[in-house]
Sequence to fold (316 residues):
Amino acid sequence: MITGHLLSAADLTKDEALNLLATAKELAAITDGPNKKLPTLRGKTIVNLFFEDSTRTRISFETAAKRLSADVINFSAKGSSISKGESLKDTAQTLQAMGADAVVIRHGSSGAAKRLADTQWIQAAVINAGDGTHEHPTQALLDAFTIKQHLAENKKDLSGLRVLIVGDILHSRVARSNVLLLTKLGAEVVLVAPPTLLPVGVNDWAVTVSYDLDSEIEKCDVVMMLRIQLERMADSFFPTEREYSRRYGLNNSRLMKLKKNAIVMHPGPMNRGLEISADSADDLKSVIVDQVKNGVSVRMAVLYELLGGAALVGSK
Ligand code: CP
Fold:
């Protein structure tokens, strides 16, 4: 059982992460049935506080909270008093006054979720839904869940699996959280990127680094393509998009080199034709739609554990 906040994948022990994945599996089995809704968080209020755009994360947290019968307030910076200059402190105190039990926050600044959790502005559980280029722990949890579902269903953890994370590692909170979580769960992680898209200090991470996708592609069980985050790039990190795509994009010829049971992942949103071809995104090896579906069950598990929900129907 996790308590307090979920700010980083590093907050979770291996057992806590595996328990969350098991709870998510149980919740998925229940909500895949005719009655999708459980009464476990009735009376709780969950606020989705989004200072940056989101499709998957915001909708899946909202769906997760509603499936657990919580009340949901969706709050985006656009259209709120934040656009008139209201501070994070005043916003947090407003949410406290409204009785928020949990705040799911996405923010463009690394550390924003921790800032909210560390202050006395609000007593709610804080869940990091992506802070700058820092972390996105629930994305890593849903990715681990999806890998386990496809490649290690009857195994305890992800030992023996080799995961390639390819592309814009430098700007990717998804990559950081996945490196922390997947290695904790026993997977071997290889980062593949041009040197310009790797962060300073990457050699201290518990990963292997390669600049050559073609020498790695046939050895992996999972290839996770990352979005090129053009909106965070003030400088030029590669010569042209065409050149990037040629060296680091997933295309048909690379797809053919993958092992028979290997899977293709992408956290979304995708730049089709840049880091991943349309054919690769829609191939039978692609589990990208499963990642989105699993996001709901995993986020249900996180909300359920942090808010101490009533016993699950059908649980032991
Ligand atoms: N993967 C992810 O965080 O997607 P959104 O930006 O659509 O939430």
